[in-house]
Design a protein that fits this description.
Blueprint lengths: L1 H8 L7 E2 L6 H9 L2 E2 L2 H7 L3 E3 L6 H4 L8 E4 L6 H7 L4 E7 L8 E7 L3 H8 L2 E5 L5 H9 L1 H18 L4 H19 L4 H8 L5 H11 L2 H17 L1
Parallel strand pairs: 1-2, 3-4, 4-5, 6-7
Antiparallel strand pairs: 5-6
Amino acid sequence: MAAAIARGLMGEVDGMLFSDSGSGRAAALAEELGGEALPNQEVAARADVVFLAVKPAALDSVAPSIGAAKEVVSVLAATPLERLSAALPGARILRTMPNIGVEVRQGVICVAGDASPEVRATLETIAHVVEIEEKDFDGATAVMGCAPAYLALAVEAIGDAGADDGLDPDLARDLVVETAAGTAELLRRRHPAHIRRAVASPGGSTEAGLKELDRLGARAAFVAAVDGSLRRMRG
């Protein structure tokens, strides 16, 4: 997710500094996007804002090395503001949950906590930013954080079905992807049920397909996917 955010912010900020725990990803991102790969302490000392994207279990071990950070945007899953503030006393902290769409500046970011107007404006260049209560982070994550994978699976399956019927696989995928993009724009304007009714004329091929989805429990499967994500987060 840190890489997706950095790619989305390319050209929106004056410069980016990267750090990692020795994986080499920081250097790779610096080479890809421009910027520098530095130790944690130097990033914290030089950066106006630190985007903290480590495993939650690593927070306590990483926090001392970024103690100089004045403003922190946390991308840590399942890590409340109380714990973040205890680990990073004195820092201005915004808790966030982005989805992968930030990479192409079409993401969603749920936020709670405190941030400067400049940071909020920067996040709005790459995402639709939604202020939520901390108690809603799990539900929001299951819906907007995990959903890109579920939607990608649906696009993949539909494209594969077209290819199985003889379409060129690249053509089939392109047709489904562009259809998904147009449908997303329609969904901003209309209720999903309205779109289904508009496409599925009585007795037609779309209605036949929807009946198959109902027969195989597609709706229940998506609900189960969200429930499974929630159980994992809360378990």
